[in-house]
């Protein structure tokens, strides 16, 4: 019941109405169950549907009646009369309730069966009348699509109809929606007159400007504008955005005789190193959009360590999806037969089988090269494993040397510059035009204008940085941050939305180039058990709420994200070298939020102290984390040695930590922390040495 | 600030159960089993499920069962349909009484309605709608019979109904609508297929449903309505974007739609109450962690403890 006043009249009239309805409903069920399809019985069902069009069993009854009665007649006029009766009943029902699912479907069902030729003029006339009463009735729009398909009306004509509807009222969201649907179909088909996407989009920008400048606070045009912007900036072709090891880098591997573990030093420096358990070097490819099809037949890895056929690429994705931004494979150093320098070459682009989620193939040839010098040492252990010694995240310990950056040139990480196809300048010009147009808008205090400007500037910076990273030094991030600060004031209801957007701008700013990274990059003072330094990035106290730009951080080994407002760490799964992660003093609200860590096989030290785990009844990560509820995990595999109560209460704990090889974990300062959980954690992580700062007995 | 009139809502729901003769009850008569599910779930969220005679309820549900095909009708004597089969299964699992079902037969009825393109018909008459995809998937998942359908095709059909604003419609090309979005997001959640959703795009569309009065609407430029407290909020929670709206304003809007004298919740302040909006109001408050309510699972639309019982019991 919608829109009925609470204390409406309850007159005798309504009692009489109720009596009539009760009788008609009883008659219907009687006739239905006894298969009585006489004129009188049908008339009763028609009277019922006129009062209550939602009673679905009555529509079913009428379908059965029609089928049964049509069996008896062959005369064209008699058939027509039966069909018209149905259409009349539907019309009367729609007058009573123009949003009745059952009535609309009955009409479609009758027409679909083509018992007699349809009178499309009448159908469009009737629809026109209903749409006049309510131009947003989505049943009406659905019916129009149905009619267009049934009577073979070309999509171009339907597009003209959306124009009519928009012209008569700019704030008809339904019309804008249908326009976006039809246009994207026509563009996809490259229909006549729709071959040039650039021309069509330019015209659409002009159209939507009229709406936006007529009524800036109306949402309809802004959603359409966002779609146009997406069409303008979304990359069609997948490209490799970054890799680890970086192109052109040189490494020295030091390993013990048994090659059970190894350390990887940048050629230029013997002070810093990566500790690699099992002597396995990850190779990471990060694409500008999720792709599928990365395999030894689409990517060739030439090295002395492993033959290409034996290489398996794995998507770094939590979902069942075949698509991932980031793909990884592992080179086994232990397979090397002798000492000496050897080069590793990774090439892709020779096959069309790496595809974006939309099916665009990766076609740009890419060749990545790096060298590895193998250095066997006699020592039993190369050292450097985290574990025995309690590792404390402490910013005082971090020194800031500018030499020995883990890669000789930061720009080497950005692969796209050398490989991106030269695009037309249309998109850059479009963005510039839109930016100046909205900067001059008289509604500059409207939240949609500010948000759109922020989005345009972010898109512009991203486009320029991908096209020519070395030229694009000045970005608009300060201006964008100011827009988001304004928006938080102007529209506090959506403050957290703006904070999440702002978080990405901040991350862009601090990781943008070598200089900005250097401010936050440091090397940790060595552990007592090791004489080497580790690659640390400190991104604490930045008001971050979520993670982004991980393609720039693939080299990070120790990451400090403490004292932010982080509530999602999705994206961190790409950091395959990550060994220590500090997430203390953030807003993580459940264990399920930690699922991305399951893919980090190198992770040893994790601090999630002083978060909000266990503070909320509703877990907003419940369906983003794999679970039996979403059929993404076979529960029997995970829970064999646990009891019923442990499983129901701590499902995520078991599922996530069983996979990790942590030696140190800190969860104190969370509502969930208690003795039972500590016991369970020790049971789940047998290799754990330190829990909440105490040595595990 | 207003408070939740839990006891009055319990009384209201129990009174609706008995009232069968006025016009409003009669108009809803054919979907009485939906009403039973809304009412009983509300009672459970209020910790009052024991107020009803469980055996009577279960035996009435089974009177709506069609033994010949395995589906349930909306009331005794009405035809079987997916919409009512899901409600029946939800009521039975609420009482932990799935054992009265011929699970094989019911799940065959549901899976038999899947079409070649992966979509689902609501019943033998062939109406197709993503609402029915949700009904089928939710139902089979509760019954542990997901293997009876082609999940990949079912997911692809739902994805074909995705719009350029990130939302979903009834059929390909249909306009995004919060109720429809819940069905599609819920079905994608249950099948572990949320990677098909552009969460930031859809999240922004959904969070812009919050109106000045604090309530949520179902489409742009429409009025707020209590039922969208459920459809919008559950979708936002599933995609982890619920923090993008102002929760305290929404709580106030729902509480202002209560009939504080006779109990029940209406679509908007001062309108007539009904059991549909009473459920969506209370379930919305449960998603907002209003004190004293059981937490609700956003995808299965059942209390979390009931869902955990389905999937974690060995």
TrEMBL record, chain A:
This is Geranylgeranyl transferase type-2 subunit alpha protein. It comes from Dioscorea alata (Purple yam). The keyword Transferase applies. Keywords: Transferase. It comes from the Eukaryota. The keyword Transferase applies. Its EC number is 2.5.1.60.
TrEMBL record, chain B:
It comes from the Eukaryota. Its EC number is 2.5.1.60. Keywords: Transferase. It is an enzyme of class 2 (transferase). This is Geranylgeranyl transferase type-2 subunit beta protein. It comes from Dioscorea alata.
